[in-house]
Amino acid sequence: MTASARLLIVGPQGSGKGTQGVRIAESYGIPVVSTGDIFRANIKDGTDLGQQVTAILDRGDLVPDELTSEIVRDRLSQDDAATGFLLDGYPRNAAQVTHLDAFLADRGESLDAVILLDVPREESIARLKLRAAEQGRSDDTEEAIAHRLDIYERETAPILEVYGPRGIVDRIDGVGSLEEITERVFAALAARGLRLAA
Ligand code: AMP
User: Fold this and answer.
1) CATH number at residue 175
2) Catalytic amino acids?
3) pLDDT tens digits, one per residue of 109-136
4) Which of 49, 86, 118, 140 could form a disulfide with 42 if both were Cys (CB 3.0 to 4.6 A apart)?
5) The domain containing residue 41 runs over which residues?
6) Binding pocket residue ranges, ligand 1, CB within 6 Å
């Protein structure tokens, strides 16, 4: 059975949303659509897109909305995203929410749930520093980390004010073990009637 779930996971950098997103998507049998991963794969492969965005990612700035939204539209138009998907890292500001809303509305769809992983800023910074030491991501410098968290607080967190009134936001305590947090998310989604893939 293929589950139908259209999900968005939101949280500050270092909240563990990438890791949780993969676990959740796997259980629901839906693909993860991570804009950060798409950009990084293009940079690694040296594509035109990769060359266009390398410096932007290194600074911790946002890639232009039009370009990002076009990439997401293309990705969500692929067959495997027809009955569901988990968006990670998109939308990241009000303009992208508008783009996504229009795209989904055209298909007669909407998001079923927005999972907000709640993690205090100090905890995010500590986790990001650890990841920098372990993975050596080029945008995990101290300066870029602070810049990305500022953008999150200024541009991304406010999108919850758009989704909140729609009654689709599940605020999940993002502090705890990996398993504990996944269980919290499953419980919240189950309460919405979103069942796991058989
Ligand atoms: P992430 O892996 O989600 O932290 O994304 C890494 C970087 O990719 C970000 O710091 C941005 O430079 C870029 N990026 C990812 N998603 C978006 C988005 N929705 N809009 C603009 N830039 C993005």
Assistant:
1) 3.40.50.300
2) 17, 92, 131, 137, 148
3) 999 999 999 999 889 888 888 888 888 7
4) 49
5) 5-191
6) 13, 35-36, 39, 56-57, 60-63, 68, 89-90, 92, 96, 139, 148
